[in-house]
Amino acid sequence: MTANPVKITDTTFRDAHQSLMATRLRTADMEPLAPAMGSVGFHSMEVWGGATFDSATRFLGEDPWERLRSFKRLMPDTPLMMLLRGQSLVGYRNYADDVVTAFVRQSADAGIDIFRVFDALNDERNLQTAAQAVRESGKHLQIAICYSVTEEGRLGGPIYSLDYYVKKAVRFLEMGADSICVKDMAGMMAPYDAHDLISALKQAVDAPLQLHTHYTSGMASMTALKAIEAGLDVVDTCLAPLALRTAQPAVEPLTVALAGSDRDPGLDLDKLLDLGDRLESALPPYRKHMESPRAAVIDARVLSHQIPGGMASNLVSQLREADALDRLDEVLEDIPNTRRELGYPPLVTPMSQMVGSQAVSNVLFGRYEMVSDQVKDYVRGLYGSPPASIDPSVAALALGDHDPITARPADLIEPEMEQAREAVKSITSDVEDVLTYALYPTTGLRFLRIKHGLEELPDEMKPDSPQAETGGASLRTVRRASDAPPKSARARRFNVYVGDDLFEVEVDPVESTPPVAVSAVSAGGGRPPQAQARPAGGTDITAPMPGIVLRYLVEEGQTVSAGDPVVILEAMKMENTLPSPADGSVAPLPLKPGTTVKKDQILATIVR
Ligand code: CO
Description:
The chain is an alpha/beta fold. The protein has 24 helices and 18 strands.
């Protein structure tokens, strides 16, 4: 054993498959590996949190709490870690303090030993309640600092300087952190920056330091090695079959690279290789989640524009939907400006989506002519306080009549547990179930109904058989033939080739819109057909881009003034409240909530 071995946290059962295959790995495919993983001698294993909770209940029909308890049973000697998004827990919005406290307590009870807690804005107020709950549970509190860079892509500059990270680490330690993690979710940390950063943090804080990074830009192994040379205590890696690409560095080459050095982690390579083989043989059913259209396993472009890979591909699909893919270069140029004007938020969920879609709006409709409700909330301070101040003219545009808040965002949220208990009491009183509902009222409730036998497990949640993925085709049954609607005259026959197999299928469009209307729209001439005749003399509110009508904020006949909110359009995953362009009254509403609309389609008409 060497004097100062680097410790290894394995992410195979959480971040690795979250990064490469949208968190789809099933408990049943991990359990057979778990006892051997637990005997490798990892410092800890990250097995829960992040998207695992959402994915298990929404897509897999699995109880995430049972997964955790099972891991604890199978790996009693390895500390289990979860990723907790501060006040947002394992969800995408801030929850009330009582939900945060109950969730942490229950997670500790179910088997979590180390809580890695972070906030996308590094705002300590979003970490307070979770940190306190972890301390009260007697478990290890690790607070993670989100790593970000400004335009030049390197450590330093006006915001994300050494000083910024040192101050955050000192502050997080004061909050009771047992260890500090630097969390580089976009894979932007350059090797020599890692050396500088870890050296500075080692001097400033007296606590174990851990590095979490992603391979996205191709630097992660080099970065990990330089961080280890600078004295890093713990590094995140995963088994080779789920390593590299957008996931973590692989543990096997690192083990060999450090062998014999004073940082030799002392892991058994043969054991790791054997585990890798076993993991590999469990992966064929998941191929479809992992296939990439590109040859490159890294996204080298990230190195030039500092825009995380996931964000860049979102932009492309958003622009394609808006039929404006030719404006991608303008959007990429606008992003640094928009980000600076919004106070340099780290480009991680949900900020990356907000900055990206705002940049798209800025290019398509003029700067801040259209601002999503999420960006307005962010500017108000409902997500926490940004690393730098927001451009005053942008703030004025986004705030409108609203005042910014200076309080801790969660202080504005009423307790939510009692209501959650009430909402599911006819199904369950189990606190884990109640928390599942409190976190995800829609998909969580559906899962609870399945779990308690009130609904059947839908086909799409069942495991895919390896046979269906590698050999013949897998066809999903929408409805049995006995109660299917009659075939229409528009049904057409197609030959479908899957590998060497030929299938003959008949395709019958589900929508009732006659084909002629579709071609009229795609030809780009004139407006799409409306459900109802448009009242003469009115002023229309049209969709500035394709999206979904989420809801109307007015009723037919209601009197409105210019600027009053009328309808919420979801576009680019953001909610946009569209105002009335004129004084008048609301004509009959042409669409139902949930309707998908095209650009320029009429959403409402205001008549005098
Ligand atoms: Co990660």
